[in-house]
Amino acid sequence: MTITHSLSPFGRTLCAMITPFTEEGALDRAGAQELAAHLVAEGCDGLVLNGTTGESPTTTDGEKAELITAVREAVGARIPLIAGIGTADTRHTTELALAAEKAGADGLLVTAPYYSRPPQDAVAAHFRAIADAAGLPVLLYDIPGRTGTRIDPETILRLAEHPRIAGVKDCSYDLLGTQKVLSRTELAYYAGCDEQILALYAVGAAGCISTVANAVPRHVRAVLDAFDAADTARARRLQLRATPLIESMTAAGLPGTVTAKALLNRLGLPAGPVRAPLLAASPEATAELRALFAELTES
């Protein structure tokens, strides 16, 4: 017996990929290509570029487009590339959408506008403007903890009527609201918080967009593979085994960008430094990450 989930143009096991930088702090084009190829070889069937984990607040518009082009060259046409384009400005977000489409992206990941905290009718108008402007499918990114603005379930239900709004990256921590939308739409939902990958997949999500997959893509994919094979006991074991690393990478006080880069640098994979205002992980935090990685992958 296998379990079938809703089809999506974006893949199932997506990594929210970090953006590698050189030691001087410039975009590491070759490193990004190497890392993207590694993630695909290890089980990712889609990549999200220029998201929060990719340090989008501190990369330029030109760097964002160059990253998409470089990764497309590395992974070819078969791997969906989703471009993060969220900003606080509808006009700027539209410009980024068009640039991402030109650079070779397959889809757009769009947050609610942050800081200004627009009401829900303005939030909906923002998303419709982006979806109208570009020819790519759109993933709504519901992460009120960062943006300060929730995309209410009722707003998502209305936006689902737009032909190019295709799904949601869910970091809302509102399981009831998520199930409400899943039960009433065909939107492709993606767990954006690694601790919720199995829980959301079990109620019909299309997959995950994982920060932890930067370090353990094969393990993240294995959780979904086990569930699809109806081996729910194994899926549960795999999810729970990853919990210490998930907590250390995403919930122990450091941003996922910082922890992912610290771990990848220790593993000899392209990452490089983070950009200010972020600071590198301490030696103690890095050692803990490396120990938890070893415990998960070597046991």
TrEMBL record:
The record's annotation in Pfam families points to: DHDPS
What does UniProt give as GO cellular component?
A: cytosol
As recorded in UniProt, its EC number(s) are: 4.3.3.7
Question: Does this UniProt record's set of keywords contain Lyase?
Answer: yes
The UniProt entry lists the main location of this chain as cytoplasm
Spell out the SMART domains in the cross-references: DHDPS
The reaction(s) annotated as catalysed by this protein in its Swiss-Prot or TrEMBL entry are: L-aspartate 4-semialdehyde + pyruvate = (2S,4S)-4-hydroxy-2,3,4,5-tetrahydrodipicolinate + H2O + H(+)
Gene3D superfamilies from the UniProt entry: Aldolase class I
Q: Which GO terms describe its molecular function?
A: 4-hydroxy-tetrahydrodipicolinate synthase activity
Record pathway: Amino-acid biosynthesis; L-lysine biosynthesis via DAP pathway; (S)-tetrahydrodipicolinate from L-aspartate: step 3/4
Identify the residue position(s) of the site Part of a proton relay during catalysis: T52, Y115
Tell me which InterPro entries the record gives.
Aldolase_TIM, DapA, DapA-like, Schiff_base-form_aldolases_AS, Schiff_base-form_aldolases_CS
Which Gene Ontology BP annotations are present?
A: diaminopimelate biosynthetic process; lysine biosynthetic process via diaminopimelate
Q: For binding pyruvate, which residues are annotated in this chain's numbering?
A: T53, I209
Active site, per annotation: Y141 (proton donor/acceptor), K169 (schiff-base intermediate with substrate)
HAMAP family the record matches: DapA
Q: What does this protein do?
A: Catalyzes the condensation of (S)-aspartate-beta-semialdehyde [(S)-ASA] and pyruvate to 4-hydroxy-tetrahydrodipicolinate (HTPA).
Q: Which family does it belong to?
A: Belongs to the DapA family.
Assembly information from the UniProt record: Homotetramer; dimer of dimers.
User: What is this protein called in UniProt?
Assistant: 4-hydroxy-tetrahydrodipicolinate synthase
Q: Which organism is it from?
A: Streptomyces malaysiense
Lineage per the UniProt record: Bacteria, Bacillati, Actinomycetota, Actinomycetes, Kitasatosporales
State which gene encodes it.
dapA
